[in-house]
Structure formats: structure tokens, C-alpha cells
Amino acid sequence: MLKIENLHATVGETAILKGLSLTINAGEIHAIMGPNGAGKSTLAYTLGGRPGYEVTEGSATFDGQDLLALEPYERAAAGLFLGFQYPVEIPGVSNLQFLRESLNAQRKARGEEPLSGAEFIKLAREKAALLRMDMEMLKRPVNVGFSGGEKKRNEMVQMGIIDPKLALLDETDSGLDIDALRIVGEGINAIMRKGDKAVLLITHYQRLLDLVKPDFVHVLAGGRIVRSGGPELALELEEQGYEAVA
Fold it and tell me: Is 95 exposed, middle or buried (0-12, 13-18, 19+ CB in 10 A)?
């Protein structure tokens, strides 16, 4: 599904990714762990097409397409979803309207019919219930007045509605209490743990991985993946730290 080969990327004048290679197949969940400044968020933003992140060498293909040649909205329409470490607030924009317009824009790009208002509300209710989120919160401006945990749950509702092929989740567990962590973990499993989907989960901690149970864990350090393994690698990191394991 996703194949990254020798990816180099800079932010401003600083080289961050320095030859990163990774393959993710449909049906797999991969976790990336590593110290601060290793390039984890840069990888997610580069794949998502965030401005300011320049690829200087290497390639990334998604479902056979040259991912790096696509505009961000084309990447989204192709089935890519980027979850942010710090979801932004959008004052004055209704959550429901934002999600309906986003979904129907993607459906149009894929040659599909847009959902009617009634069809969309039914879908939104279903996904909000999955994340135990009150529908009234979806009527508010995007993330405005939400706690950190509510923003992350709202983002998972967005993911459920958009229904991507590949989710890039950048520290989704950041700022979550125990209950919110469990709800978000269950949401990721319910939405993305399917044979035709995949997840790249960026995290610092084992606690989310106890819920999501990745197939592979990778250590990213110095702009490249320096070690890969199964879920047991995350336990080694928890016990010994990055220096000892990497």
C-alpha cells in the first residue's frame, strides 16, 4: 500500500529525514517510536503534503501512485488521512459542515455521488457513538472549546467518517487520560483494523500500543529507521530507553 524508499526531507535549511525506507501493506498497523527530534512528525507531514516540508531525494508510492507528486487534497482523495498531534481550532466553521464538505469533496474526486444531508447525519451519529461523543459537540465550531482529549476523539470521529485507506496518526495518545486513551484505541481498532486498510502510528509510549497492538514496531533515530521488530520491541524501549535499543 505504502512504499517509502530512501526518503530525504528538509524543513527550512535543516535536513530531518536522511534516507528513510519503509513498506506498509494493507491490513497492517505499524508503530514508529523514537526520541524527540528524530523526524517522526516530519515523516507524517511530508507524506501528508504539508507546506514547508521539502523532499530532496527518494520516493513514496501509495497504491501504486507517486504520492509525492500529488497535492495534499489529492492525497486525501486517494485515501490518506493525517491525524495531528495538536488538532487546530477553526472558529466559525461548523464541525458537521466541515466534515460533510470534506467527505463529499473526496467522494466527488473519486467519481462517487455525494451523501445527502440525511445520509451524512446518520453516518456522523454512528461514528460519534463509536467514540462516545455527543452529537451536540459536532454542531460546534471545529475543536473550539474542546479539551485535549475531546480534540483527539473528534479527530477519530473525522477519521471514521472519512474512512481512509491509510491513517497517519501523529501522537494521537498525547494529552489523553486513561479513559480517553481507551476510547481512542478502541476507535482506531474499529475503524482501521480491516484487511484493506493500514495505519502508521507515531507514539512515544507503550500504553496506546497495548490497546492497538501493532504488527510491527520501528525505531526512528537520526532521520532514518534504525531498528524494526514486533510488538516486543516497544516493551524493550519502555524498559531500556532508545539509546540501549537503537
Answer: buried
Q: What is the pLDDT of residues 19-29, one digit of tens each?
A: 999 999 999 99
Q: How many domains does the chain have?
A: 1
Tell me the angle at which helices 117-130 and 148-162 cross, rounded to the nearest 10 degrees.
130
Domain range for 146? 2-245
pLDDT digits (tens, 9 = 90+) for 100-159: 998 998 888 888 899 999 999 999 999 999 888 888 888 899 988 888 888 888 889 999
Residue 162: CB atoms within 10 A of its CB come to 18
Name the one residue in this structure whose C-alpha cell is 488538532.
87
Cα(215)–Cα(230) distance, integer angstroms: 6
Q: What is the pLDDT of residues 146-164, one digit of tens each?
A: 888 888 888 899 999 999 9
- Judging by beta carbons within 10 Å of its beta carbon (0-12, 13-18, 19+), is residue 44 exposed, middle or buried? buried
Residue 164 C-alpha from the chain's centroid: 10
Cβ contacts of residue 94 below 8 Å, gap of 6+? Answer: 139, 140, 141, 142
Q: What CATH number did the domain enclosing 135 receive? A: 3.40.50.300
Dump the DSSP string for 202-216.
E-S-HHHHHHH--SE
